[in-house]
Write a structure and sequence with these properties.
Elements lengths: L6 E2 L3 E5 L13 E4 L3 E6 L3 E5 L7 E3 L5 E8 L5 E8 L6 E7 L6 E4 L7 H6 L5 E2 L5 E6 L3 E6 L7 E4 L4 E9 L2 E11 L3 E6 L6 E7 L10 E3 L5 E5 L2 E6 L2 E2 L1 E3 L2 H21 L3 H34 L2 H11 L5 E4 L1 E3 L6 E4 L4 E7 L2 E8 L4 E6 L5 E7 L2 E6 L4 E6 L2 H10 L3 H10 L4 H17 L3 H9 L7 H7 L6 H13 L5 H14 L2 H12 L8 H10 L3 H10 L3 H10 L3 H8 L4 H18 L3 H16 L29 H14 L6 H9 L7 H11 L18 H11 L2 H8 L7 H7 L5 H4 L13 H21 L2 H36 L2 H4 L19 H4 L2 H6 L6 H8 L11 H41 L20 E3 L5 E3 H4 L7 H21 L6 H8 L3 H10 L5 H16 L1
Parallel strand pairs: 1-29
Antiparallel strand pairs: 2-32, 3-4, 4-5, 5-6, 7-8, 8-9, 9-10, 11-12, 12-13, 13-14, 15-16, 16-17, 17-18, 19-20, 20-21, 21-22, 21-25, 23-24, 26-27, 27-28, 28-29, 30-31, 31-32, 33-34
Helix pairs in contact: 2-3, 5-6, 6-7, 7-8, 8-10, 10-11, 11-13, 12-14, 13-14, 14-15, 15-16, 15-17, 16-17, 18-19, 22-23, 23-24, 24-26, 26-27, 26-31, 27-32, 34-36, 36-37
Length: 1049
């Protein structure tokens, strides 16, 4: 960058002696420390830590025999080190390491051979410290570098550079920030020292390929770990591999060659002086020569770069670009020869002290400009960045502060002069917000647009993506003649993920109008790799399809999984075979959607039955085994389709519906839903022959089979749907099987569909379907149905039916006669099984001294209930039979002769039985009256002489029970009101009574009512209630309350 014009911008304010508290301090040995502190060595105070806002500085005082020589502080941790000269120590020299907050020093002794005696004597000793104080170094005998590693208890490492050392700079390896590295310079060379992370030993000492070394203070470290070296007026940039190259940047090259000319053109518009024009012409010639020199220099640099070692190439290209193409060497020519350089973020501070140029300047390299300057440049002792400023400490202990001005206002003024590169450089160096930087790019783009430099304008607009509204740019380039520029901007939106559907539509419309088929081909190739699309794929497919790029749209839709759109376009071209092949590669959800919309067209397209059956089999497999999609990942799971969604596909292909249902039922019947089974019933009509219909119906609709039932016993199809369909088709066999289902039992309809001669057989006890066990109404309905049909047949003169019906009626009356004869036995047996046994059985007592037999007969209202009285007449009452038979006047009464005989015989038998029961009941009542009289008016004689429990002789006090057992009072225990021997049996009897009472008495929940109905001792009744299994928890609580009251009484 020779003959560079450095434009000056005053971006810094310079203030001399800005801090009153720091004036007149002894700053001959000072350093800045972590936490915004300034450390220096006072003549009587030791090491002092202060800053402009501290009232009482912290101090590390020296002892009487100690003299502090120099201090150095870590920049990232609160650690520091001070060199100490002692008059009492055996070696006379050591270090103190300490925390800058606690100020508790730890002595670090130095082996005698490593004491820098010469530097101590002349006061030139300097301690070089890395940021976290894991390493520090100093110069020994001017040519040797002594390096100590934490925890500083081992022998130091020594590197002999053979020439006087001028600079020592600690930094970190850019490729591994955890690794410490160090640059050491002499006047002739640069040495790179690299520490290993395992044992902290120097494992590599590299001589950096360079044209020479660096003088004192003429090298500095950048944040990325590279070193800047100044020789004369030229600044070069190095890393461990040698000098670095700039990445090739056309913008930067254009700016270097033409940028300054643009600024001078502006000055030309303002001042038309002829002399300036002549000077500018001369400068243009010089710049042409400079351009030729640069091209030559770039070639030489490229050849030199190829000859550099591999380490240099790797690091240079990795850090500054991977294009394989680089620009010139990273070197910059200043406008003078500095005596000190210092890197301050994104700019270089250089100190000049020439007779006619004593100045501090801050250089920015791209674009080349000077951000600030301060005078003078002599008498400088120390430079550091602290307190949001650049601090310059001079030899007279005075301080100069260089601070930034208000950047926003300054940059806006620069933008008004259209010095956009300078504005961008300043904004980047000052870390302005992205929104502010975007504003600069927008202003620059607007300027280019006004000058009709549309290619440059669109590049700048791309830099504003994410901050500037896209419509602002699109409206400026919406005209067809700007389509190329608009495409570039829209692609920029896609690259940054900021495009929407409208942008995609506009972009692909531009592609099709401009015939950019190479871009379309690129997008298709990317889609084949299944890379995420930076645009809205659905919109792109739609635009391409409407623009006549059908193959491209199909390819995009297929590769990006727009299966519905892909099928739609194929359906428009009637490529149904291709749709079928595509269905084999996608998931269940997409298969379902496509088949629901295009399945009917697909199956109608297949003229060959084999193809149609293959498609039907594929749909069945999707329902049973899952869709055979391409599994991209190991954890992908095949999903099954719902067969209900495929039924409409076979609307015009009933035979394929039959095949579809057959596939499902044979392969995996559990996937068949109610809709499928309903459709299966409907498929029966597609069989023309009656035998085939019956075979199919019996195959899938065997109502006793588990195939058509859920786990809870419910049928998988809907009864109403089946009933309606079978009736509409008048399918007799199906209806008859349907009506006798357990959950239907339409026996009246079943009888109507049966032949007349078959009806009597249904009521036989040997018939497999127990119709005869149903209600009396069905017997009555069957008889009335046969007689009514006989009457109708007589009216029609159908002799064949008359004969058949007459014979069927005769058989049915015979069955009624048999049922009448058996009805008495069945009714009695059923009745006595339901009645509590203790009501009709004797209470058995095993003692021979029982005073009398106690038999409790049921009451008449308990024995014969109204419902049971009706059932004694058989399935149909005799009078009802006579009424039905009388419907046909020609039926002979001889048909019911046997029935009448059985009826009269049963009535006589029943009457005798009732008379016998009445007599027995009267006798029992008389016995009960006698017993009651004896208990009331006669005495009770206890015949027992021994206790039933202990078999001892009965003596007073004793207890005698009516059951004939006697006990000592002490043998009865707590309950003296209950016979121990009979207690368990009595409890069983009472619990049976309680259960019977609970069934027929709604007031069972009332304990007092239960006691009254039981007829036994109340305490015993209550205790029996608690021990019974007929009480709920809430009822038990009531019983306990009543029991407590009776116990108190």
């Amino acid at each position: 960058m020779s003959d560079t014009i450095w434009n000056v911008y005053h971006l810094y304010d310079v203030v001399d002696r800005p801090y009153e508290k720091l004036d007149e301090l002894e700053l001959n040995k000072c350093d800045n420390a972590c936490g915004g502190l300034l450390a220096y060595i006072g003549s009587t105070e030791g090491v002092v830590f202060t800053n402009p806002s501290v009232d009482e500085p912290a101090k590390l005082k020296n002892k009487e025999d100690e003299t502090f020589i120099t201090v150095s502080c870590a920049k990232k941790v609160t650690q520091a080190i001070v060199a100490v000269k002692s008059t009492t120590h055996k070696d006379g020299f050591y270090f103190y390491t300490f925390d800058t907050k606690q100020l508790q020093p730890t002595m670090l002794e130095v082996p005698k051979d490593y004491i820098p005696t010469e530097a101590i004597e002349d006061g030139s000793l300097t301690i070089y410290l890395n940021d976290d104080m894991t390493l520090f170094a100093y110069v020994l005998d001017k040519t040797k570098l002594v390096i100590f590693s934490a925890p500083f208890d081992s022998k130091p490492l020594v590197s002999n550079l053979h020439d006087p050392i001028t600079n020592v700079l600690f930094t970190h390896d850019p490729n591994n920030p955890a690794r410490n590295v160090l640059f050491a310079t002499t006047e002739n060379e640069i040495t790179y020292l690299d520490w290993g992370s395992e044992d902290s030993k120097i494992y590599k000492e590299t001589k950096v390929p360079a044209d020479g070394g660096a003088g004192p203070h003429l090298c500095t470290i950048k944040e990325d770990g590279v070193i800047m070296v100044c020789r004369g007026a030229q600044v070069n940039v190095y890393d461990a591999g040698g000098q670095l190259y700039e990445e090739f940047d056309p913008k930067k090259a254009a700016f270097n060659n033409q940028g300054n000319a643009e600024e001078e053109d502006k000055g030309e518009d303002e001042n038309d002086d002829k002399e300036k024009k002549e000077k500018k012409k001369d400068k243009e010639k010089e710049k042409q020569k400079a351009e030729e020199n640069k091209e030559q220099e770039a070639k030489e640099g490229e050849e030199e770069g190829e000859e550099e070692n591999k380490i240099h190439k790797k690091k240079a290209y990795d850090r500054y670009g991977k294009t394989g193409k680089h620009g010139p060497k990273m070197q910059y020519i200043l406008n003078g020869e500095p005596i000190w350089i210092y890197w301050i973020g994104n700019a270089l501070l250089a100190v000049f002290n020439a007779p006619n140029d004593s100045m501090i300047r801050i250089f920015n390299f791209f674009p080349p400009c000077i951000f600030g300057k301060a005078a003078p440049g002599d008498n400088i002792r120390y430079i550091f960045q602290e307190w949001n400023s650049i601090i310059v400490v001079r030899t007279d202990n005075s301080i100069t502060r260089i601070a930034e001005v208000d950047m926003t206002e300054k940059i806006n003024s620069i933008i008004k002069n259209e010095q956009f590169d300078v504005a961008l450089a300043i904004a980047a160096s000052r870390k302005m917000t992205p929104e502010f930087i975007s504003m600069i790019h927008r202003r620059r783009a607007d300027s280019y647009y006004a000058k009709h430099k549309f290619d440059l304008a669109i590049d700048e607009y791309i830099q504003t993506i994410g901050f500037l509204e896209a419509s602002y740019v699109i409206t400026r380039f919406i005209d067809p003649q700007y389509a190329e520029f608009l495409v570039k901007y829209l692609e920029g939106l896609q690259a940054k993920g900021m495009s929407n559907k409208q942008h995609t539509t506009l972009l692909f419309n531009c592609y099709t109008k401009l015939r950019k088929e190479e871009r379309l081909k690129y997008y298709i190739e990317e889609s084949q790799k299944h890379n995420p699309a930076p645009y809205d794929v659905a919109t792109a497919v739609e635009v391409l399809n409407l623009s006549g790029y059908r193959p491209e749209s199909l390819e995009l839709a297929k590769n990006y999984g727009l299966n519905m759109e892909y099928a739609r376009m194929l359906a428009e071209d009637h490529c149904y075979s291709t749709i079928f092949e595509h269905l084999k590669t996608i998931g269940a959800e997409d298969v379902t959607q496509i088949v629901k919309k295009y399945g009917l067209d697909i199956i109608m397209f297949f003229k060959d039955e084999r193809e149609a059956r293959e498609f039907t089999s594929f749909l069945a497999d999707c329902c049973c085994d899952g869709c055979p999609m391409k599994m991209r990942y190991k954890d992908d799971v095949k999903q099954c389709c719902n067969p209900d969604d495929f039924l409409r596909v076979f609307l015009l292909k009933p035979q394929m519906l039959v095949a579809f249902i057959d596939f499902l039922a044979e392969k995996k019947p559990e996937v068949c839903t109610a809709e499928i089974w309903n459709a299966a019933i409907e498929s029966i009509i597609f069989k023309e022959k009656e035998e085939e219909r019956d075979e199919r119906f019996n195959k899938y609709f065997n109502f006793t089979s588990d195939t058509v039932k859920f786990e809870d016993g419910r049928f998988k199809y809907e009864n109403d749907q089946v009933d309606l369909f079978l009736k509409s088709e008048e399918y007799r066999n199906g209806l008859m099987n349907f009506y006798i289902k357990d959950d239907i039992r339409y026996y009246e309809e079943y009888l109507k569909l049966s032949r007349f001669e078959q009806i009597p057989k249904y009521f036989e006890e040997t018939y497999p379907i127990p119709i005869w066990r149903q209600t009396d109404r069905l017997w009555r309905y069957a008889l009335k149905y046969l007689v009514q049909n006989l009457v109708d047949s007589r009216k029609k003169g159908d002799d064949e039916n008359i004969a058949t019906l007459t014979l069927s009626i005769k058989e049915f009356l015979s069955l009624l006669t048999q049922a009448r004869i058996k009805s008495e036995t069945r009714v009695a047996k059923r009745y006595f099984e339901e009645i509590d046994p203790d009501i009709i059985k004797d209470e058995e007592v095993d003692d021979e001294n029982r005073p009398y037999d106690h038999v409790k007969l049921p009451k008449a209202t308990d024995v014969i209930e109204p419902v049971e009285v009706q059932k004694i007449d058989g399935p149909v009452a005799f009078l009802d039979i006579l009424e039905i038979i009388s419907m046909d006047k020609k039926l002979r009464m001889g048909y019911i002769k046997d029935l009448a005989r059985a009826e009269f015989k049963a009535r006589q038998s029943r009457l005798k039985e009732l008379q016998s029961i009445e007599l027995e009941t009267e006798n029992e009542m008389m016995r009960e009256d006698v017993e009651a009289y004896k208990l009331k008016f006669c005495h009770y004689k206890a015949n027992q002489t021994r206790c039933k429990k202990c078999n001892g002789v009965i003596d007073l006090p004793a207890k005698h029970f009516l059951c004939g057992h006697s006990y000592h009072i002490e043998c009865l225990g707590e309950n003296i009101n209950m016979c121990i021997h009979c207690q368990e049996k009595q409890k069983e009897i009472i619990q049976r009574k309680l259960r019977s009472l609970k069934k027929r008495d709604k007031r069972f929940e009332n304990p007092n009512h239960v006691i009254a109905m039981s007829g036994v001792d109340p305490l015993f009744a209550l205790s029996s209630l608690l021990q019974s299994d007929v009480m709920r928890e809430d009822e038990t609580a009531k019983v306990k309350e009543v029991l407590t009251e009776y116990t108190k009484l």
